[in-house]
Amino acid sequence: MPHLDAAFSLARFLMRNEEDARDVVQEAALRSFRFYGTFRGEKSRAWFLSIVRNVCFTALKRHRADETNVEFDEELHGAGGPAVDPGKEIDRELDRQTVRAAIEQLPPEFREVIILRELEECSYKEIADIAGVPIGTVMSRLARARQQLHQILCESYEREK
Amino acid sequence: MTHEEIRALIHPYVDGELDVANGREIEQHMRGCDDCRRLEQRVRTLRTTLRKSFPSYSAPTALKRSVRTTLRSEARPVRPFLSPWLLFVTGTACALLILAFAFFQNARATRDTLTDELVSNHIRSLLATHLVDVVSSDQHTVKPWFDGKIDFAPEVRDLSSAGFPLEGGRLDYLHGRTVVALVYRRNKHPINLFIEPTTTRDHTDPTTSTRRGYNLLHWTRNGMDFWAVSDLNAAELREFAAHFTS
Questions:
Q1: Shortest Cα distance, chain B CAs vs residue A73, angstroms
Q2: Which of A139, B77, B95, B125 has its CA 20 to 30 A from that of A158?
Q3: What global pTM score does this model have?
Q4: Do A8 and B52 touch (CB under 8 A)?
Q5: Tens place of pLDDT for every residue, chain A, 161 residues?
Q6: ipTM over 0.90
Q7: In which residue ranges of chain A is CATH 1.10.1740 found?
Q8: Which of A33, A119, A143 sits opposite B71 (nearest CB)?
């Protein structure tokens, strides 16, 4: 059963807890099996991850509706604030838990592109296919996601000092 | 490209998503722009930091196991539809059905032409004075007459005591081979009894059929096919067959 690690990692970051991530992967595996019969070919990773991602976002939307009822806004997130803060840079290695916590602070749509690009090494095209958005959106989301992640990591670095 | 346009392309540049021409323009711009250079450096540092801390999760063993179990149980109901055994059995049954139908049709057609031929032979034997080649009511005269003329020894019985006197015998021609025809008489009604060897070892009881007003009786005994043809009524023809086979 290939791609299960990648699938679980994506689900774990998006759901932010292990139990939900397990449920998501189980559900996604079942869906992909019913639809496709099995996993084959080179494209099967992107295809399976897109199912995982869709199951995650359906679950998240349900949670979101319960809590705040706020939809993700491309313009809102990442708008404002200094383009580049010259003073702050990450100048030493950070431990795994800090990085994980920082990623989890991002909105799910940013989390998704960070994980797919930085952890799974997907191309922009693959990310666009998985997330079901145009490549241009992938590009702008990734830029904003990196900017936010950088700020969060700098802050946690400040706190540790 | 303006500074803002270049800035927007720094991320795809670092990610190796830009073509050579655009990449060169970015590099040229960055040589003179601190802001863009700093952004490029920041993206690279971030990537390195993420890679070094290795934040990926790997699937728990329990999850791998339960996914495998789910998929296996999911695969099971599909199996009966694709069972090679079921396909084989269904296919064979269909083939047998078609064969049986073809065989039945063929057998019926053969039987029909044979019946026609028998009746024609019977009629022809009455038209000319060719009813018998050997005239005798003595079975010991009739039977040896066939020796050397055919490759089988037919059963010849005199049934005078039962009211079916033997008149004689002759050679006849049926579906391409020479057969024996014994001639009996019931009152005024001649009976042609055609005899030929058959491959079946079974004994069958006489079965009646009718063709152009003539009654036919067919049975098999001791590896011989018997066909009695006559204008005699069916009941008396059965009586004849009963005496002959007794």
A1: 19
A2: A139
A3: 0.56
A4: no
A5: 678 999 999 999 999 999 999 999 999 988 887 776 655 555 688 888 999 999 999 998 887 776 655 556 666 555 444 444 555 677 667 788 999 999 999 999 999 999 999 999 999 999 999 999 999 999 999 999 999 999 999 888 777 76
A6: no
A7: 4-67
A8: A33
